[in-house]
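Our consortium's second objective concerns turning raw sequence data into structural hypotheses that experimental partners can test. To show how far this objective has progressed, the report includes one record in full. It was chosen at random from the queue rather than selected for favorable results. The single chain below, 217 residues long, was entered without modification.
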Amino acid sequence: MLAGMAFEGFAAESFDFYERLEADNSRSFWSAHKAEYERFVREPMLALADELEDEFGPAHLFRPNRDTRFSADKSPYKTHQGLFISRVPGTGFYVQVSADGVLASGGFHSHGPDQIERFRRAVASEGTGTELASIVAGLGRNGLEVGGDQLKTRPRGIPADHPRVDLLRYRSLTASRHWPAGPELARPAALGLIRQTWEQLIPLCDWLSEYVGAART
């Protein structure tokens, strides 16, 4: 990380870089504009990680390159830069910058069969399930968008009138807040927006860490 470097926000150039990358996702564009990526994307993200590390833990900055080995889309670069702080593998706090702005989120992203089984068991249980429903409702009231992979129908064996049938359809569970590109993000105060969102997500990440945990199979 960039020790001692203060987070100053994401300048307009941060979002402009990704607008142009979306239009020309090529190695020649990247080579010609790599210095802009370093200055306006990578360095602010590393400074952000430094600011948040004491409260949330060490961060992992994702590589800008896409893994195209098994993808029909051979575009070499991601059109966003993500950063993740893990509570347990697959569960934690995430932030990304792209042409659209900044997204802060948290929750449970991986979904091994054993994780899904533990998740559904905890959601179906009256005590732990009611606790999660309360957490999710609170996130919604605070303006976060709840999402994740969902089944189209309820899981097998779950009655249609189960009080938490909608939660039981999830195979992963996240909540997020998005800010569009603009002057609000170009100031150091953008740190407070992300920190506040992550703090609101702590109860969700704690619940998932305790009752779902990392994949074991």
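The partners drew two points from this record. The first strand starts at residue 60 and ends at 61. The chain has one domain: 12-65+74-211. Both points have been shared with the crystallography group to help prioritize constructs.
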